[in-house]
Amino acid sequence: MNILVCGGAGYIGSHMVRWLRARDVDVTALDNLSTGHRAAVGDCRLIEADLLDPTALDRAFASDRFDTVMHFCACSLVGESVLKPLDYYQNNVVGTLNLLQAMGRHGVARLVFSSTAAVFGNPVTERIDESHPKAPINPYGASKLMVERILQDAAAASGLRSVTLRYFNAAGASPDGAIGEAHDPETHLIPNVIAAVRAGGNAPLRIFGDDWPTPDGTCVRDYVHVDDLAQAHWQALTYMDRHPGAHAFNLGNGCGFSVKEVVQAVERVSGQVVPFEVAPRRAGDPAVLVAASDRARAELGWRPAYTQLDDIIATAWCWHCDPGFGPREA
Ligand code: UDP
Predict the structure, then answer these.
(1) 196 CA distance to ligand 1 centroid (A)?
(2) Considering 49, 175, 176, 287, which has the largest number of Cβ atoms within 10 A of its Cβ?
(3) How far apart are CA 80 and CA 12, in angstroms?
(4) What is the CATH number of the domain that holds 108?
(5) Which domain holds residue 236?
(6) What angle do CA 225, 262, 78 make, to 5 degrees?
(7) 89 flagged as catalytic
């Protein structure tokens, strides 16, 4: 196997690179380093290129014989997507089209694609399975759903094999503390809760709304460990061997936790109080997103190792508390 991991220097992509290398797979990371970190890929080969640059993509594909692409590159912030929709469609849709066209030119016909729970919009069932209506309520989810459609059409027209994995809320860090979540600015809940603890009251967590239609008024999400996402990508490779066409799986633990419950979990893990204040709702947020991942379990054989929120948070806490916290830039 020889895999090109696009977005390999980003949060989820870098955990994937480590997962594959631990299994002796040939891996090349490709990243424009706009949000990713060179240090996060370690000594893996890294091609610095942008999906919006077809010539750079041709050079990347000409440099090796890849049999599969894993595609993690994306703008992925719900709130930002509402403010900058055109950037999201450009990066996520046009960038992916460029990638697919380059794959076609270079005879690479297998793709694992990162999608999101945001393709579903507001849930109409308690847990969201693959048959749930797809009605995104923000440009981020809409951009990912457009790519899902493109993959179906490409499968029918040219035989492109793909597995789309819809992550619910990716969280945690590698248990050895080597890599973790390092966005700048950080917008995600768990790192922001940890940052609020570490700031000791100087920069309280802002909870975006406590008037949502949920039991405690704060948004409910399904947190899934980043290494469990990597496991599903690994299983998708063998699934694609047996299944032509375009397939999609939802990945989550099936348990919803409110923002306030995440705050309490960080307090349990850290043994410290989380200072917080309530701020207005964030545009584009659905109130509740919880996965039904029965299909991934049945068909991929996916077995998440981190089923407890506290265990997921503990890996993030350890990484953030490491004195060398953050990506060590090479
Ligand atoms: N959230 C919050 N304060 C923060 C960051 C996030 O209240 O500093 C809320 C956010 O509104 C959402 C949930 O936490 O309801 C998870 O947000 P995150 O950005 O981590 O992931 P998303 O669900 O947007 O993918």
Answers:
(1) 14
(2) 49
(3) 19
(4) 3.40.50.720
(5) 2-170+224-251
(6) 70
(7) no
